[in-house]
Amino acid sequence: MCNMADIDASRTPAGYGPWSPALSDATERKAQLRSMAALALVYLGPDHRLVTELRAAEVDATALARAQRLVEELPALVRRKLLSRTNPTTSNSPPPTVTMMPARVVPAREHLGTIAPNRATKEGNK
After folding, report:
1. Tens digits of residue pLDDT in 77-102
2. Helix and strand totals (H; E) in the chain
3. Which phi and psi (to 5°) does residue 113 adopt?
4. What is the enclosing helix (H) or strand (E) of 113?
5. Cα–Cα dist 54/42, whole Å
6. pTM of the model
7. Cα-to-chain-centroid distance, residue 4
8. How do the domains of the chain map onto residue ranges?
9. Which class for 36: exposed (0-12), middle (13-18), buried (19 or more C-beta within 10 A)?
10. CA distance 81 to 48
11. Could you report the per-residue pLDDT of 23-66, keeping only the tens digit for each?
12. At 60, phi and psi to the nearest 5?
């Protein structure tokens, strides 16, 4: 399928999205390419060459390299929008750690068991 040797690593030293060197699963790369192609379709329209190249990159390594160049040539704002919504599963940073706070014990109160009388049964409201 896609050979990482065909990717121009000098253009993206850290790698991102489907061009990340940390991404070794072909199925995940294909999913990221489809996701990025859908976003490119929304942001750039159906006639933009990037949409075609991203779809072709699912099976063609040279199309993957061409798509990388096209992404790099996009105007900064469009490129930022496209890349910010791409799945960051191949990021080199570790996932955030979640610290669970201990549960707080709330003492039981006796007055919670009593029910307030219904206003309709009070004297004068009959």
Report:
1. 999 888 888 755 545 555 556 666 67
2. 4, 0
3. -80, -15
4. none
5. 14
6. 0.59
7. 22
8. 25-91
9. buried
10. 16
11. 888 898 999 999 999 999 999 999 999 999 999 999 998 999 99
12. -125, 120
